[in-house]
Amino acid sequence: MSSQSRQYSHTQELINNLPYIAMIMLGMAVLFLSINTLLWKWLTAVAYLIYGVAGVFWIILFLCPFCRYYDTNFCPCGYGQIAGKLRSRKLQNRESSQDCFNEKFKKHIPVIVPLWFIPVLVGVTVEFHTFSIGLLALLIVFAVDAFVLLPLFSTKHSCKECPQRDSCPWMKQRRTRGE
Worst-scoring range by mean pLDDT, 139-143, 145-149, 170-174? Predict the structure, then answer.
């Protein structure tokens, strides 16, 4: 671990996950308000929730085993500890797993990216056809959380302390945009 690494309590891990949890809850609400039929409202909202939870486990299973925080309490979101219980590292050398992290990040992050866009696409389409101030307000709150707060919180907090930040595709992209 780097000298900047710190251990996280379960309470801090929960706090660090709140922007993502809020995004999923807000996304569910956008989908629920966007659909007219009661059955489809619930099915769509629950499907989005399942996708959000499955996305977390996708990252835990397919990205975390290649992270330096795998099976430690140095992971700000707590995924590393969960990954250690669900999947073995598969590599004997911790350093060789770090070399794979960048490749695995690029491969597996696109699986969860639609979570950011599904509520926006559905909500904006509905707003275009039948305007609702409530749905518009919810879309704005969703967008602020998903596209401003969540990335800002990650970049300024979790990524700031990450020993892989210099090679991470997420941080490289943000540095090239001057963030």
Answer: 170-174
Taking the C-alpha atoms of residue 162 and residue 158, their distance in angstroms, rounded to an integer, is 6
Read off the pLDDT of residues 115-127 as tens digits, 9 standing for 90 and up: 999 999 999 999 9
Q: Are 118 and 27 in contact (CB under 8 A)?
A: yes
Q: Is the pTM of this model over 0.70?
A: yes
CA torsion through residues 153, 159, 161, 166, sign: negative
In total, the chain counts a number of residues equal to 179
- Structural contact between residues 68 and 132, judged by C-beta atoms closer than 8 angstroms: no
For residue 164, which phi and psi values (nearest 5 degrees)? -100, 10
Residue 52's pLDDT is 98
Enter the tokens of residue 68.
């330096």
Beta-carbon contacts of residue 135 (< 8 Å; ≥ 6 apart):
30, 33, 34, 123, 126, 127
